[in-house]
Amino acid sequence: MAKLKILVFEYITGGGCGAAEMPDSLAREGLLMLSSLINDLSKVEDIETLIMLDVRVNTLIKLPENHCYYVEPEQDCWQVYRQLLPVCDVVWPIAPESGGILFKLCELAEQAGKTLLTSASSAVAIAGDKWLTYLHLRRHTINTIVTEQLQQFQYRQGDWIIKPVDGVGCEDSYVITTEDDFRQLSQRLEKSRYIVQPHINGRKTSLSCSFKHGKGWLICVNLQYFVLINKRYQLTGIDVNIPDQRKPYLNLITQIAATLPGLWGYVGIDLIELDDEIKVLEINPRLTSSYAGINRACGINCAKEVLALLTGKPELQREQPAMQQTVHINLKA
Predict the structure, then answer these.
(1) Fewer CB within 10 A of the end CB, N or C, for the chain?
(2) What SS3 state is found at 208?
(3) How far apart are CA 1 and CA 321, in angstroms?
(4) Per-residue pLDDT tens for 136-170?
(5) pLDDT tens across 265-283, in order?
(6) How big is the chain by its Cα radius of gyration, in Å?
(7) Are residues 24 and 111 in the same domain?
């Protein structure tokens, strides 16, 4: 039986930056996710992986060389991606939503008639846009944070956070506490690209999930650690698989799955938890940094579970049944 050939493309470390320098935090998290994914895939039988890799990071990650397609800084990664699509059966893109990158990668794979191991481009179009995500959640009465477009926002007293509509992580997000802060910042931003939300203090958690055609499964709950430096958040670490009361999270996942059936495979959901309620912040239709700790924390091979979705539903079987622990991922520079 022929092996299933998987094209893996982590955008930042796979040539997406071209000749430009890779952003440190995104490159660090990209390598972390890529290394964990390839490690999981190496334990799955009857598959063959082809990995796009920026030649400059070759020494920073251990990958089987005969499975790598090295992208030189002067090469166009989009052209390489298009060239490799025909020789693969399925595609696993990992990319930021910013600039529509993840959407375009998914759309190109669909147009080439290839099966995605991620969400459909139609779901990415919504989940990859914070404003559209807010409208979608509100339309379906899923608890979220009141969001306004920066170009329509009238400053009111209070603490606010301004975010790019398609940013990844804390990229280009700013906390403002005074009208002067707001005036100075809004003058230099392209207002149509940003949203404004009240700055709420609460427990920042995330859900690692699996989705397929309107159904969702919870893998684990994670706790995120941030620091605020010069009024900008930085993610410094994640506790993967914290002890939790699963019911409220399961209800949220069920709601999101039913209203966004194009979600497929691994999906991360960012939350903020207050004393009496849980609010959805973001839906990430791709691998997240938490993925890197799941195998060690839960004994679950998520890559194997995603591949199982091609023919059925995930079993979320623990490779080591006794394993159940919290694993910390350090994301400090």
Answers:
(1) N
(2) strand
(3) 30
(4) 999 999 999 999 999 999 999 999 999 999 977 66
(5) 999 999 999 999 999 999 9
(6) 20
(7) yes
Which residues, other chains included, contact 115 with Cβ-Cβ below 8 Å and sequence gap of 6+? 89, 90, 91, 109, 310
What pTM value is reported for the model? 0.95
Parent domain of 170: 148-198
- Residue 31: name the closest of 17, 48, 45 by CA: 17
Q: What is the pLDDT of residue 318?
A: 64
- Count Cβ atoms within 10 A of the Cβ of residue 229 and give its class: 0-12 exposed, 13-18 middle, 19 or more buried: exposed
Q: Is the distance from CB of 287 to CB of 265 less than 8 angstroms?
A: no
In this structure, how many other beta carbons lie within 10 angstroms of the beta carbon of residue 305?
Answer: 21
User: Measured at the alpha carbon of residue 209, what is the angle toward residues 205 and 211, in degrees to the nearest 5?
Assistant: 145
Q: Are residues 166 and 216 in the same domain?
A: no
- Looking at the 3D structure of the chain, how many domains does it have? 3
Same domain, yes or no: 180 and 208:
no
Q: Tokens for 95, please give them.
A: 């990319």
Query: Which position has the higher pLDDT, 232 or 109?
Result: 109
What is d(CA 115, CA 241) in angstroms, rounded to the nearest whole number?
Answer: 30
